[in-house]
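Q: What residues go here?
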C-alpha cells in the first residue's frame, strides 16, 4: 500500500487513524505492515465502506477537512469496492538506524555483497555498483537524469534504488538521492573495478 504525504503527516501527528481504498481484490490484512518515510504503518482493520454513508468524522479520521474532499479523493482511487482501512504508526522506519551504521565488519560486508550479487545475477546485467556510484557522484540529482546516465527507464531505476534503500545503502532526498553512511562504507570497501 502506498500512502500520500497528507496521510503520513497525519499519522505522525497522531490525527489520522484510517484511510480509504478501492479494491477489486483485498490484498492487505489486519497486521500487514508497510515501511514508509514516516515509519512503519500497520493495518489495524479492513472493512467495506459505503461512500453514501461516509461522515465528516470519517473524513477527519482520514486526514481530510471535509466529507466532500474525502469523496472526491476516493472517486479517483480506481475501481472496485470501497474499504475503510484502519492504520496506525507502529514504529520508526528501521532503515534509518540501518543506514546510519557507517562502519561495516567483514560479516556485514559479506552479507551485503551476497545480497547485491544476487540482485545483479537476477538482472539482465549487473547494476548495483553502477547505481551506488552514480548516486555517490551525483547526490540530489533528479532521478530522470540518473536513470538516463544508467541507461534505464526512470520507473525501473527508481524501483532498483528502493531495493538499495531497503538495505540501508541510500537515502531519498526532496530531489534525488544520496548514499547513506552505510552505503558509503560499502562502496569504499569494494575493490576497484569489482562488480
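A:
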Amino acid at each position: 500500500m502506498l500512502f500520500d504525504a497528507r496521510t503520513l503527516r497525519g499519522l505522525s501527528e497522531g490525527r489520522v487513524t484510517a484511510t480509504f481504498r478501492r479494491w477489486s481484490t483485498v490484498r492487505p490484512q489486519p497486521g500487514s505492515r508497510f515501511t514508509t518515510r514516516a515509519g512503519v504503518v500497520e493495518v489495524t482493520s479492513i472493512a467495506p465502506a459505503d461512500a453514501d454513508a461516509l461522515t465528516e468524522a470519517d473524513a477527519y479520521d482520514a486526514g481530510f477537512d471535509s466529507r466532500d474532499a474525502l469523496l472526491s479523493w476516493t472517486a479517483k482511487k480506481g475501481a472496485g469496492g470501497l474499504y475503510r482501512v484502519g492504520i496506525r504508526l507502529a514504529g520508526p522506519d528501521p532503515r534509518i538506524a540501518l543506514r546510519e551504521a557507517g562502519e561495516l565488519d567483514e560479516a556485514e560486508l559479506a552479507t551485503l555483497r551476497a545480497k547485491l550479487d544476487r540482485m545483479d545475477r537476477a538482472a539482465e546485467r549487473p547494476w548495483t555498483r553502477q547505481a551506488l556510484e552514480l548516486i555517490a557522484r551525483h547526490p540530489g540529482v533528479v532521478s530522470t537524469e540518473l536513470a538516463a546516465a544508467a541507461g534505464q527507464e526512470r520507473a525501473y531505476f527508481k524501483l532498483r534504488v528502493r531495493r538499495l534503500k531497503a538495505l540501508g545503502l541510500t537515502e531519498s532526498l526532496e530531489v534525488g538521492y544520496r548514499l547513506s553512511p552505510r552505503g558509503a562504507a560499502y562502496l569504499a570497501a569494494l575493490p576497484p573495478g569489482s562488480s
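A: Context that may help when evaluating the design: Residues 89 and 133 are 34 Å apart (CA to CA). The beta strands are 18-23, 33-36, 39-48, 81-91, 170-172, 177-179.
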